[in-house]
Write a structure and sequence with these properties.
alpha/beta; Rossmann fold; 306 residues; binds magnesium ion; 12 helices; 16 strands
């Protein structure tokens, strides 16, 4: 490819490598497909993160995956031998959702379609959470009994729910008919790659369904949402977004998000996207840099030393 973008960080000459390294202070990295694969670790990704930290970079993680608790993220970093993990903050949509609900002083109950951990975090933050427990309907009467709604809710919040069903969606739609009920979403990925050759339908299609039925545009609190960006700018005191390097494997959620916010974007080819996917994009949507994996930083720093 013959353009100014999409450069392999290992193919930069020594001077360009140094210039690239000096061009950012903050590293924001996605997790699944970058630091590890859902099916297992990426060897030496912890070392790569340590080298970036040793070079004076402030590193934080930004993932759309709320199925894993914050402690589980830190356990993974510990297993990867990442140093001083308390310096690293893990941001998932639940944090930006809670921050936003506090900002708008949400007092009414919220209705969620989300995983257990997501609901627990909301409850711990003092919000009243309504949701439908997972159950199996034996007949249509039981099903019909669960459909009417009487509570007034301030927001419908949609995130990944492995037990999603029609009753939950229908109730969300009924709540959203109230003009005062806002529609918030966390992860909005089209596809969730679980492992090589095993993808599942992501939340996007269901969000679009509710959007169509309710005629409401959701507030996106996960990548690539504007409200998540607002949260990150405030939380990490980002003054000059060009001095942030965003590392991710997904062209929409990571690279799109990075480019929308004027971050430098580094695509790693260890997860959801490959070179051919990038080549189909106009240059303006392409990442500035790519690497086969975050582990390429090990060689990158070696090249700088020699
Ligand atoms: Mg990813």
């Amino acid at each position: 490819m013959n353009n100014q973008k999409f450069k392999n960080i290992l193919e930069l000459n020594k001077e360009e490598k140094q210039k690239f390294l000096d061009s950012f202070d903050i590293v924001l990295s996605d997790c699944d497909g970058v630091l590890w694969l859902i099916i297992g670790p990426i060897k030496n990704s912890g070392l790569a993160l340590n080298l970036l930290k040793d070079a004076g970079k402030t590193c934080h993680l930004v993932s759309n995956n709320c199925l894993r608790s914050e402690n589980e993220y830190y356990d993974k970093l510990t297993q990867m031998n990442v140093k001083n993990i308390s310096e690293i903050e893990v941001v998932t949509p639940i944090k930006s959702v809670i921050n936003y609900l506090k900002k708008i002083n949400m007092r009414k109950p919220v209705y969620t379609i989300a995983d257990k951990y997501f609901n627990e975090c909301l409850e711990k933050s003092g919000f009243k959470v309504l949701n439908i427990e997972n159950k199996i309907y034996e007949n249509v009467q039981q099903f019909a009994n669960d459909l009417p709604v009487k509570d007034e809710v301030g927001a419908v919040i949609f995130d990944i729910d492995l037990n999603l069903n029609v009753t939950k969606l229908d109730r969300a739609n009924k709540y959203l008919q109230d003009p005062n009920c806002i529609f918030m979403v966390g992860a909005c990925d089209a596809v969730m790659p679980l492992k090589e050759d095993l993808n599942v339908i992501g939340p996007e299609i269901f969000i679009n369904l509710l959007r169509k039925l309710s005629n409401k545009t959701p507030y996106v609190l996960g990548k690539p949402g504007v409200l998540l960006a607002d949260y990150l700018f405030e939380r990490f005191n980002i003054i000059d977004p060009k001095r942030v390097l965003f590392i991710g494997d997904n062209l929409v959620q990571d690279i799109g998000f990075a480019l929308n916010n004027d971050f430098q974007a580094l695509l790693v080819l260890s997860g959801a996207s490959n070179k051919a996917d990038v080549q189909q994009l106009p240059e303006v949507k392409q990442p500035h840099y790519f690497a086969n994996s975050i582990v390429d930083f090990v060689e990158f720093f070696n090249d700088l030393k020699n």
